[in-house]
Specification:
The complex is a heterotrimer of chains A (351), B (517) and C (317). Chain A is mainly α. Chain A is built from 14 helices and no strands. Chain A has a domain of 229 residues. Chain B has three domains: 169 residues, P-loop containing nucleotide triphosphate hydrolases (Rossmann fold), CATH 3.40.50.300; 174 residues, P-loop containing nucleotide triphosphate hydrolases (Rossmann fold); 72 residues, no CATH class. The radius of gyration of chain B is 24 Å and the shape is globular. In chain B, a hairpin with a 4-residue loop joins strand 7 and strand 8. The termini of chain B are far apart. With 517 residues, chain B is α/β, with parallel strands linked by helices. In chain B, the strands form five sheets. Chain B has a six-stranded mixed beta sheet, sandwiched between helices. Chain C has 317 residues and is mostly helical. Chain C has 15 helices and two strands. A two-stranded antiparallel ribbon of chain C has the order 1-2. Chain C is globular, with a radius of gyration of 21 Å. The C terminus of chain C is likely disordered. The chains are: A mainly alpha (351), B alpha/beta (517), C mainly alpha (317). The interface between A and C is large, with 45 and 47 residues.
């Protein structure tokens, strides 16, 4: 029974991806007369040069983090979709810490990360408390918090940390003590991906091997059951969102310290929403988040390579991600096949 | 002429449970035909198929001897089928008339506006025609159960039903209300209505039906004229063995007072008072039965006692300590166990494994965990033991609870609550909707737990269960204790029925005895 | 500070409240129409964006603002149907489907914008048309009131008229009764032969219609071009406004006006050189505070009922 289901889910996920890619190809056919070339860049681009492979790996890092952040709240059946804002605000906090905390080698990196985690956690705590104390929908409030994070963050960076000598709206450059080291001499591959993988293991252990993880999962499976069993549901609602926010906030810090060395965003980078598709592909399993994030990063990188090589807008990949979310969460998609499988095995048990 | 023919019906649910496995069922026009079988035999599923709510996996249906395909209740209604469900299907915030005409609203102003006056008229017309009066303009929310059932019947009649299905209509009624319903049903049959009556109360079945069809394990065991079979024969066909459910209950040896409830009152969120000065005591080693028609405050009482509902006044003393207002988290730690009314909603997490379900009240303690970390091996070990002890049918402790049958799911709940080492066990409808085998098992376990020194509060709408298990009985009506019996020898279901309906009540001094031991 | 107070008390301020309320009001009515039938339409944001985009594009191609409006609304309704299909037929989780459609709308509009105009930020290079403003003859000449109420965009009037239409639809018509029944107890609706699915489809289409009008207003009235992600959370704010207003169209309207006032205030603050990043976040903070106050009030209300009843008891009633 359990094996049947794993096979079923795998087939469904694969088919979903294939359908999405097919739709992508069809869109390209309409959009350009070089569809084949564009599609080739899209599919193979990320592996075409060493630089692009590095780009692929670096882009995987924030997606693992946001995928984990979303997985944690989704496991608790909480629709806090504020990872976007938590990451953004975490990045703003990291900028502050990188510029104004004492410039001590190694120690500052840790402090920046902790400060960003605190900021992300605090940001997530607002909808969490509202939900736990007053039963206000975390869905709407976390969405609102995304916008507040964006505007407030921009205000802080543009008016208080802006490097007026830089050509663009960016913050001052971080001191070297707040740079993540390079792992390769010629390419900027930063160790964020290792930290991310470490976090995936940590989150897995937390969810499946600790008391608090058990509480969190039971609240997600049936909140009334959890309350009835003597689990403090309100606490779980709060700490699951704070943990999620901390992970998202950390993603912001690592992205800046590893890649840009300063605050560079004037638009939200979208990793928070990408985290949703990562979590869904991974079925909220922290270990599966790693390949899922790599996959989404691959699509993203492919779309950018395609954009650079052929001039097609890489936003096409956002459409494909949306289609994948729809198909993966569609319970009835391929359900006829699943039903037949269940009916067959049930009837054979009856014999 | 045959009104209904269902031929070789097979139904497999998405979770793999085979509810109907080759059922054959025939009903003649104008008869009252009972469909009997124990819980889980597939009666309700068969009727849901007939009413178009579920689709059969295989099989053929004929209505008035014409083959039909019923893909929705809409189709069923067009074919002249009406159904009164076990759980009422009413919209609480709408009026009686709005509920009845819903979907066939009379209109004015070129169909844009509902003609409410005409709707009320229509309802009163049918109500009068069939002798089932209802307050057409009132909001449904707080109407009594008997009236709600009448509304359900009228909903079918106003749509021109010629075949009326009633799914366990007496489960929520007192014996006296049941009599009234039977008079109405016989009347309808006389006017040519075909009635399918689902029940597992055999005395009722004998009283009302012309013919009986027995289901067991999703298969037809046969159809009989009512005068050709005895209750014993029917019950043997239903369960497949001779035993009538007899539970051996040795006299209780009550010990110290575990629970003392004093003057408990409670107002619901909408301002309606659902508990009024409830007082009783409960000693270790005894079972106190709480009888009453559903919706007379029992649910609120249970939820307050188990820390799931707040805002009551009065006092609850557990093991000498005031506990009113404490949460389930606190009460669990003060040794309160609870078998909830609804196992799917509260009692279990159907998407979690059996093992995960079994430790939900003790996961934080040794041997299941240390300060932070969970010990999966110990959890599985315990789960395997519990599965054996409570004979839960499964191949692995990692099976999702949702894949189990109702009876086995309830055994998981019971296994957890009975092994929790509690002083007080609140058992709310502990055998609702499960098969006879599991029922017998659970009831025997309740006696066992009592004899090990636990104080048991048994809340049940099943009077047979109350009489079988309880050492003392209180009866609730409109949030009050209106009857108290300090032993149940010689007590009958009818006796309790009068108190449940509020027809009889004990004087306050006698009711007080429930608290003064 | 004086400056601010003066400008808030001016007729122009109230005029602009009505103007900025318009898209939020459409979104709130859209939220209401689906909520009544028990569907949370979180895709409103994307529906509006879709309509804003196609309204501009089609009006540019056809040279007619009205055909543009039609196309915009049609695109929103179509996307709403997609939400209905995924949720009701393929059993996709409603909220995730909504999020996905928001992503889809955001991604596809940018993709197509670039394809059609070569610009990823806005459609300013495309010559599109706007819907007209309308003067109301009698009211126009009344001092102050005329300045506030007259001369608005045609869709602003339609938005406020829709409040009454929606209220009537929900509480007086057969469809409204069925929608309420489906929302409150779908089993009850099903038991009398109403197709729950069809009712939910209908309410989502109506919801899409409202969102479509709101989106078209943004790009063909509020401004005269399409910009990437130009809805800027208005669909979500509409959801919040409806949550505050309960199951009544009038409630939704008051909720929307509240946010309209917040947004208009934030523009006024910008005029006295408070940074726009700062003022832009005000409507969102305001929403959060309103949600908290509303949720608290609901809890207090329950408490009060109970206290009142208990005190009656003690007096001996």
């Amino acid at each position: 029974m359990r094996r049947d289901r794993i096979i079923f889910e795998t087939v469904r996920t694969t088919l979903t991806i294939l359908i999405a890619l097919l739709i992508g190809y069809v869109i390209l056919l309409f959009a350009t007369d070089k569809a084949n070339e564009a599609f080739k860049w899209f599919l193979l681009g990320p592996l075409s040069t060493k630089r692009r492979i590095v780009e692929l790996l670096n882009r995987t890092t924030p997606l693992i983090f946001t995928g984990l952040a979303v997985s944690v709240v989704f496991q608790a059946e909480i629709f806090n979709i504020g990872a976007e804002g938590q990451l953004f605000f975490g990045a703003v906090a990291a900028t502050f810490a990188a510029l104004y905390f004492p410039h001590i080698k190694f120690l500052q990196i840790i402090l920046v990360m902790l400060f960003a985690m605190a900021a992300g956690g605090a940001w997530a705590a607002v909808p969490a408390y509202m939900k736990a104390k007053w039963n206000a929908s975390e869905l709407v409030s976390s969405l609102m918090m995304n916008y507040v994070a964006f505007f407030f963050g921009l205000y802080l960076v543009n008016y208080h940390m802006r490097d007026v000598n830089a050509g663009a709206l960016v913050s001052y450059r971080f001191p070297r003590t707040a740079w993540l080291p390079r792992m390769l001499r010629r390419y900027n591959l930063h160790p964020g991906i290792l930290i991310a993988i470490g976090f995936a293991l940590l989150v897995w252990f937390f969810l499946y091997r600790t008391k608090y993880g058990y509480e969190l999962r039971m609240v997600g499976k049936n909140k009334e059951f959890a309350r009835f069993s003597g689990i403090k549901v309100e606490n779980v609602v709060i700490y699951s969102q704070i943990i999620s926010g901390m992970i998202a906030g950390l993603a912001g810090a690592i992205e800046l310290m590893g890649l840009y060395k300063r605050f560079v965003w004037q638009m939200t980078p979208g990793y928070g929403f990408d985290g949703i598709i990562v979590a869904l592909l991974a079925r909220n399993n922290p270990l599966m988040v790693i390949p899922a994030a790599l996959f989404i990063s691959y699509l993203r990188t492919g779309s950018y390579v395609m954009g650079r090589m052929t001039g097609i807008a890489p936003e096409i990949v956002v459409m494909l991600q949306a289609i994948m979310i729809l198909l993966i969460t569609a319970e009835a998609f391929l359900a006829f096949w699943k039903r037949r499988m269940i009916e067959k095995s049930a009837m054979s048990r009856e014999e | 002429m045959k009104a209904v023919q269902m031929i070789n019906i097979v139904k497999v649910y998405p979770n793999g449970i085979v509810a109907n496995n080759g059922v054959n069922f025939e009903v003649e026009v104008g008869e009252i035909h009972s469909l009997v079988g124990e819980n889980g035999a597939g009666k309700t599923t068969l009727m849901k198929i007939l009413f178009g709510i579920e689709q059969p996996t295989q099989g053929e249906i004929r209505i008035f001897e014409k083959p039909v395909h019923i893909s929705s209740p809409h189709d069923a209604i067009k074919l002249g089928i009406g159904m009164v469900h076990q759980h009422f299907m009413l919209v609480p915030s709408l009026t009686v008339a709005e509920n009845i005409v819903l979907g066939m609203e009379p209109t004015k102003a070129w169909g844009t506006t509902i003609d409410m006056d005409r709707a009320v008229e229509m309802v009163n017309e049918v109500a009068e025609k069939y002798g089932l009066p209802v307050p057409a303009k009132e909001v449904v929310l707080d109407l009594p159960v008997g009236i709600k059932q009448r509304i359900e019947i009228l909903k079918a009649l106003i749509r021109g039903a010629k075949i009326l299905i009633l799914d366990e209509p007496t489960a929520v009624l007192t014996p006296q209300e049941t009599e009234e319903l039977f008079v109405a049903l016989k009347n309808l049959a006389k006017k040519g209505m075909t009635i399918i009556f689902i029940s597992h109360k055999l005395n009722e079945v004998k009283e009302i039906s012309d013919r009986i069809t027995v289901l067991r394990d999703g298969k037809t065991m046969g159809t009989y004229r009512v005068e050709d079979v005895t209750e014993e024969e029917i019950s043997r066909l239903m369960v497949g063995r001779d035993v009538e459910l007899v539970i051996d209950r040795p006299p209780a040896k009550p010990g110290r007072v575990v629970l003392q409830v004093k003057d408990l009152s409670y107002y619901r969120e909408d301002g309606v008072r659902v508990l009024k000065g409830v007082s009783f005591s409960l000693r270790s080693g005894e079972i106190l039965g709480v009888a009453g028609v559903e919706g007379n405050g029992q649910r609120e009482l249970v939820e307050i006692l188990t820390g799931l509902r707040f805002g009551a006044t009065g006092s609850i003393v557990l093991n000498g300590e005031e506990v009113l207002g404490l949460t389930a988290y606190d009460l669990r730690r003060k040794k309160v166990a609870h078998i909830p009314e609804d196992r799917i909603e509260k009692g279990a997490a159907v998407k979690a494994s059996i093992a995960e379900n079994l430790i939900s009240d003790r996961y934080y303690k040794r041997p299941f965990s240390g300060r932070l970390v969970l010990f999966p091996k110990k959890v599985i070990e315990f789960a395997k033991k519990a599965i054996k002890m409570f004979s839960i049918k499964t191949d692995s402790p990692l099976t999702e609870v949702g894949m189990l049958s109702g009876g086995n799911m309830q055994k998981v709940v019971v296994a957890r609550e009975f092994t929790s080492g509690a002083d007080l066990l609140v058992a709310d409808q502990p055998t609702r909707g499960i098969d006879v085998g599991s029922t017998e098992f659970v009831r025997k376990k309740i006696i066992e737990v009592r004899d090990s020194g636990v104080a048991v509060l048994l809340v049940s709408a099943d009077l047979q269960e109350i009489l079988q298990l309880s050492d003392r009985i209180i009866v609730m009506y409109k949030g009050e204790i209106v009857g108290y019996f300090d032993k149940n020898e010689g007590l009958t279901e009818e006796d309790l029925g009068y108190y449940m309906l509020g027809v009889k009540r004990h004087d306050p001094d006698r009711v007080k005895e429930a608290a003064l031991l | 500070m004086n400056e601010v107070i003066k400008s808030i008390l001016s007729a122009q301020f109230f005029y602009s409240v009505l103007r900025v309320t318009t898209p939020v009001l459409f979104a709130a009515l859209g939220a209401l129409l689906s909520d009544v039938a028990g569907v949370i339409n979180i895709a409103l944001e994307g529906l509006m964006l879709m309509s804003a985009f196609w309204g501009v594009m089609v009006s540019a191609w056809t040279g007619s603002a009205w055909i543009g409006l039609l196309a915009g609304v049609a695109s929103a309704v179509l996307l709403s149907l997609a939400l209905a299909y995924f949720h009701l037929n393929l059993k996709t989780d409603l909220i995730l489907a909504g999020i996905a459609l928001n992503m889809f709308a955001s991604g596809s509009t940018v993709f197509l914008l670039y394809l059609f105009s070569g610009d990823k930020g806005s459609s300013s290079s495309v010559k599109s048309y706007v819907l007209p403003n309308v003067d109301i003859p009698g009211i126009k000449n009344i001092p102050i009131l005329g300045d506030i109420l007259s001369g608005h965009h045609v869709l602003t009037y339609i938005a406020f008229l829709s409040v009454f239409v929606v209220q009537y639809l929900i509480y007086k018509t057969p469809l409204g009764l069925r929608m309420r029944a489906v929302g409150e107890n779908p089993n009850a609706a099903q038991s009398v032969g109403i197709s729950v699915k069809r009712i939910k489809y209908t309410s989502l289409v109506l919801s899409g219609l409202m969102a479509g009008l709101g989106g078209a207003f943004l790009s063909m009235g509020y401004v005269s071009w399409f910009a990437r992600d130009m809805t800027n959370g208005r669909g979500f704010i509409g959801l919040a406004a409806q949550a505050l207003g309960g199951k009544s169209a009038y409630g939704s309207m008051w909720g929307a006006l509240l946010f309209g006032a917040a947004e208009a205030t934030s523009y006024t603050l910008q005029a006295i050189r408070i940074p726009s990043e700062f003022t832009n976040m005000l409507p969102f903070i305001f929403t959060i505070i309103a949600l908290i106050i509303y949720a608290r009030a609901k809890i207090m209300q329950i408490k009060k009922i109970r206290e009142k009843q208990t005190s009656h008891e003690e007096v001996g009633l």
